[in-house]
From TrEMBL:
Pfam families attached to this UniProt entry: Tim44
Name of the protein: Tim44-like domain-containing protein
Domain Tim44-like: 47-164
Organism: Roseburia hominis (strain DSM 16839 / JCM 17582 / NCIMB 14029 / A2-183)
């Protein structure tokens, strides 16, 4: 074996070699929070003009609290932690729980930690205003089936990002079937024709009209993750 080959092997398997460097990179990725899309300085003044006196820090805290509650609900397999959330958010969490149950999967989120939250978008359309917050989140996230891990790791943290959308209805008259934001029957999931509809035309169950006077978190989505 040539001296060049020997030197290469020593470098690869030595303390300063590729293996040690790979381990360092793994550790760095596991501990480094994701960067969020910060548009707060642009959108905060616009929101303040549209809603004078609005405390954005309170709504940021609301978005963070409800995100954690939603992930905890998925882990618990029930809606207890989101009992006071919007119908839209409960419906999303319920679909995730039922999907896991149907597949025989247990999905777990543990040690959830939010590093940073910023406004990433603000949009007005169809009589609604939507603020999107984006958070850099750290947690353990894995899925088990028949006692085996089928996705993720129990012993490795996941650094990821979530979007949380908060909705306010400015003009309920514009909320009609086809342009409404997430209007579905909370009982059967059928589309609703308007915010004031009291009875579902599909299943006949009573529906509590949407309160158009408050901001509510209606959706969350994971936008980036890296398992190391």
């Amino acid at each position: 074996m040539s001296s060049d080959v020997i030197r290469t092997l020593k470098w690869v398997f030595g303390k300063g070699g590729l293996i040690e460097e790979y381990k360092r990179q793994e550790q760095m990725l596991e501990e480094t929070p994701k960067s969020v899309a910060s548009m707060t300085r642009i959108f905060a003044p616009q929101i303040s003009r549209d809603f004078p006196g609005m405390n954005l820090e309170q709504f940021e805290a609301l978005a963070q609290q409800q995100l954690v509650a939603a992930l905890q609900a998925v882990s618990a397999g029930n809606l207890e932690s989101v009992a006071r959330a919007s119908d839209e958010l409960k419906e999303q969490v319920s679909r995730q729980i039922e999907g896991n149950r149907a597949a025989g999967v247990r999905e777990t989120y543990e040690q959830i930690r939010i590093h940073q939250t910023e406004i990433s978008n603000y949009e007005k359309k169809n009589g609604t205003c939507v603020i999107t917050f984006q958070s850099a989140v750290e947690h353990y996230h894995y899925k088990e089936k028949a006692g085996k891990i089928i996705w993720g790791y129990k012993d490795r943290k996941l650094q990821t990002k979530y979007n949380m959308e908060l909705l306010y209805v400015q003009d309920a008259a514009q909320q009609t079937e086809g342009n409404a934001f997430g209007l579905n029957c909370p009982n059967c999931g059928a589309p609703m024709k308007g915010l004031g509809q009291q009875i579902c035309e599909y299943c006949g169950s009573p529906v509590v009209p949407v309160d158009t006077r408050v901001w509510r978190m209606v959706r969350f989505s994971e936008v980036d993750y890296h398992h190391v």
